[in-house]
Amino acid sequence: MFSMTEEQIRRYSRHIILPEVGGKGQHKLLSSRVLLVGMGGLGSPAALYLAAAGVGTLGLVDFDTVELSNLQRQVIHTSADLGKPKTSSARETIEAINPGVRVIEHRERLGSSNVLGIITGYDLILDGTDNFSTRFLLNDACVLAGKVCVYGAVFRFEGQVSVFDPKQGPCYRCFVPEMPPPGAVPSCQEAGVLGVLPGTIGLLQATEAIKLILGIGRPLIGRLLLFDALEMETHEVRLRKNPNCPACGQGARLEELRDYEYVCESYG
Amino acid sequence: MAVLVRIPIPLRRFVEGRSVVEAQGRTVSQVLGDLGFRYPGVQQRLYDSSGLRPFVNIYLNDEDIRFLSGEDTPVKDGDLISVVPAIAGG
């Protein structure tokens, strides 16, 4: 049996009255632990809504401090937070929205030596990173640890969302087997990004995270959602588990993690 | 066969800004070849000296051609090919 305080019942009443959520579902949210990797454009909106929804524990991974050029899209940070570590700035906002959320700051750069230790304490991972090398590393770690990862990525006016559950479907590297070589794909820093776009994509990730915790609906496992803000179109393609995947394929068992070299360059 | 090709935003500057263009061919390879012939800027962004770039995924309708017959996959009139490059921004 679960119990909620009167304040919690009032705070989450719009969830609790949904038959698909109810008191039981809200209790699942309250006892869930979600790790947000990256407190940038994707992690910011996702953290705001996961906190408001009552996800019990939010882990925040980021090593950066808040810069002026972040504020065009990283809405969890404010002008008063310039220079602060992003994890601390995000924690303050989360606690102001919902003091019931337990926030764990991981103010470190994700690498092969710390990633497994960080992800192990969480039920679900949300990938809001901003480069291929961290995405590859995080994917490999999630495959090794059997963690489900809600993927989102943005570029200029386009976004992608999927759910990688290595037990049921493809992983990130079934979709992106090789990292683009230098000169191939630009980072947001170099190419720009429409500020509202990571908001849209980050909230689609948060939506998937909440569905997965509640066990409702049809998650984006084996499906890649593509969002084009200029045309205001979405479409979907299938992602299949690659039997020869270097991360999750048979016979390609990962034994240890390695750091990938950072790459960011220009495509198009 | 006339096939529609969905062009990702970074490559639209090579196709007069359009999001979908038409190209001809009987296989994915022929359609992409025709696309590259019509719009030369696209060619070098899809291919390098060893073939189709591995971080550019090609879908025929909603299926990854790597799980069909690759570039030899036959196409039919009205099919939609989507060019989906890997992106990593956050």
Radius of gyration of chain B: 12 Å
Total count of helical runs of at least 4 residues of chain B? 2
Structural class assignment of chain B: alpha+beta
Question: How would you sum up the global shape of chain B?
Answer: globular
- Rounded to an integer, what's the Rg of chain A over CA atoms? 18 Å
What's the oligomerization state? heterodimer
By CATH, the topology of chain A is Rossmann fold
- Classified by CATH, the class of chain A is Alpha Beta
Instruction: Determine the CATH superfamily of chain B.
Output: Beta-grasp domain
Q: What is the H-and-E element order of chain A?
A: HHHEHEHEHEHEEHHHEE
Q: Number of helical runs of chain A?
A: 10
Which CATH architecture of chain A would you pick?
Answer: 3-Layer(aba) Sandwich
Percentage of residues assigned to helices of chain A: 25-40%
CATH superfamily membership of chain A, which one?
A: NAD(P)-binding Rossmann-like Domain
Largest sheet of chain B: 5 strands, mixed
* Mean pLDDT across residues of chain B: 94
- The shape of chain A is globular
Proper CATH architecture of chain B: Roll
Mean pLDDT reading of chain A: 93
Describe the structure.
The complex is a heterodimer of chains A (268) and B (90). With 268 residues, chain A is α/β, with parallel strands linked by helices. Chain A has a single domain (32-238), classed as Rossmann fold, CATH 3.40.50. Chain A has ten helices and eight strands. Chain A has an eight-stranded mixed sheet with strand order 3-2-1-4-5-6-7-8, sandwiched between helices. Chain A is globular. The termini of chain A are far apart. In chain A, 49% of the residues are buried. Chain B is α+β, with helices and mostly antiparallel strands and 90 residues long. Chain B has one domain (2-85): Roll (Ubiquitin-like (UB roll)), CATH 3.10.20.30. In chain B, 20% of the residues lie in helices and 30% in strands. Chain B has two helices and seven strands, in the order ββααβββββ. Chain B has helices spanning 28-38, 40-46, and strands at residues 2-6, 20-24, 47-48, 51-52, 56-60, 63-64, 80-85. In chain B, β3 and β4 (51-52) form a beta hairpin. In chain B, α1 (28-38) crosses α2 (40-46). The termini of chain B are far apart. The interface between A and B is large, with 49 and 26 residues.
